[in-house]
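cache lookup: miss for this entity combination. No prior model stored, computing from scratch. Input as submitted by user K.M.:
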Amino acid sequence: MSLRTLVLAIALLAPVPALAQGVLVAPTAVFIDSRSRAGSLLLVNPNDDPAEVDMSALFGYPVTDSLGQTQLFTAEQPDSAEPSAAGWIKIFPRRMTLAPKGQQTVRVLVSPPPTAADGEYWTRLVIVARGGKLPVTVVDSANTAGLSVGLTMEVRTIIPLFFRKGKAEAGLAVSALRANRAADSLLVRARLERTGNAAALGTARGEMVDSTGKVRATFNMPVAVYHAIEPRFSIAAANLPPGRYRLRFEVAAARQDLPAESVLPFRAVRDSVSLTLP
Amino acid sequence: MLGAAIALASIAAAMATPGTAQGNGSFQISANVLQAITITGSDLAFGTILPTSTTIIAPAAATAGRFTIAMQPNAQVTIGWSLPSALGPNLAVGGYQSRVGIFNSVALSVPFTPPSNSGTVTTSTATGNLFIWIGATLAATAAAPGFYTAPITLTVVYN
Amino acid sequence: MRCTTYLVAALFLGAGAGPLAAQGGRRIRVQGVQTLSFGNLLPGVPGVVGRTDPARSGRFDIVAPSNGQILVQFTLPNRLDGPAGAGIPLTFGGGDAGFSADQSIGGQIGFDPRVGFTAATGRRRRSAVFLGGRAQPSAGQRAGSYTAVVTLTVANVL
C-alpha cells in the first residue's frame, strides 16, 4: 500500500467532522404597535461554519390536544375571523448567509389595512438555519464502492409576533380545574379562555396544601392563551402522603421570559379544588 | 506577579504613611441581557460504508447527531422532529434513537424515543438548556457509490 | 434603615465620589464619571469593551497634586449581578485599564487593572483612569439588567 493510498484510506475511515449549524434569535417574541409598525430581531451565528438562514411568516398559535399537550396550530389560509397578521408582514432580508460568529439585524414591517379593528393580531416568524456548506468527500479511485453518508441537522425556530393596534386588552377566565394522580406525578388540568381582544400571556402557579395548611408541592409554568386551551401541568407527587389536599391554582399576567412592558396586564384568575390522594 | 506584589506593597505603604493623601471613587458596570433562544445542531455521520451493509450509530457515539437548545430558564417550547426514511435509492434510514439531558454530557442524559414526524413534545427546563443526541440505523442494499445526505429538521416553537 | 437606603442609592446611581482626603494638605479626589457599559448582551456571546471606547468604557476623574506620583488600585468585581441571583462572569485583561495625565481618552498609558499602577501626574492636577473589560454571559443566561460596582483607590506618593 502506497503512502498516498494509506492516507486516503485513513481519511475515508475517519469520521466526517460534524458540522454545526444553527442560529441565535433575539428576542424570543416580537411586539410591534401600530405607531411604529416596525420591529427588528437579531440573528447570530454562534458556530465556526457559515449558516444559511431563511425567514418567513405564517399564521399560528399554540393549542392543546386531548391530553393537554401543547401543539402549534397553523393555517396557510386562516379563517377571516382569526386575527392574523401573517399577510401584513414584510421581512428584510428574508435570506442571508451568516458568517461564522456573524450577526444580522432583520427588520420586520407590518402594513395592516386601514380598516383593521383595534386589538391584537398574531403571526409566527419562522427562522430556518442550515449549514452553508456540505462536507466534501474524496473517494479513492481504487475504492469506487465507497459511500459517504450523513444526516445533516437543520433547525427551525418559530417565535411569536404580536401586532397591537389601538386598544388591546387581555383577559382570562378559568374553569374545569381538576387533577388526577399518574405514577409519581399529579396531573393538573384547567380550561383557560381568553376574554379580551389580545392573547393572555401569563404564568400559571399551583400548590398542593395539606389539611394543616402546609404547602406540600408546587408548580410554576408560563402559559399563552390565544383562544381557549386546556393545558396539563405536572406536580411531583411521589413524596405526597395519602390524605386530603386543597389544590390552589392561579394564572397571573407575568412572564419571567418576556419583558414586563410587553405583557398586557389582566386580573389574575384563581380557582381551587379539594382532592383526596390514596 | 512580583510587580503586582510590589505595587500592592507600595500602595499599602503609601496609605499607611503619615502625610500621604488618598481618595477613592466608584462607578457602576452595567449590562442588559436580551431574551434569546439558540438552537444548534451538528450532523450525524455514518461515514464511509459498504454498498451492502447495516450501520448503527448509537446516540452516545461520537458521530451521533446533536441538537442544543439554550433559552431562558423555565421558558416553554414545543419541539417537533422531521426524520427522513431514506437517503437515496437503496439507502434506508430508520431506527432512530435519542437521548436528552439538561447537561452537555451524554452520560447524564436519558433515553428518549423521538415522536413520529407529526408528533411534538412540550418542555421547559430550570436551566434553559436542553441537549438532544440522535442516532439511527442505515441499511444499504447494493447502493451506488457517492455522497448521500438528508436533513433531520428540528422545529422549536417558542410558546 | 435610612443609612442603608442611602448607601444602596449611592452604589446604584453609579458615579460615586470619595470624600476629599486631606492629610498633610495633599488632597486627592477620585470620582467615577462614566459607567462601564456592556449595553445589550446576547446569551452565549461575550461582550467586550475597550478602554479607548469613548461611549462605553468606564472612567474615573482624579484630582491630585501636580508634578507628583500617585498609586492607583482597583477593586474589581468578578461578576455582574442580575435577576434572581443570576450572574455574568467578568474578566479584566492586562491592558484593560489606562491612565491619562491630561484626561484625554487618546492619551492613555495602558496598565493591568488587576495590579496597582504608579503614575506621574504632570503639570495639571486633573487626570483620568479608563477601564474596559469582558463579560461572558452563558448560553442560557437569564435575561434582564445586570450591575456591579468597581472602586478605584488612589494614594499619593511622597
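stored under new cache key. The mean pLDDT of chain C is 82.
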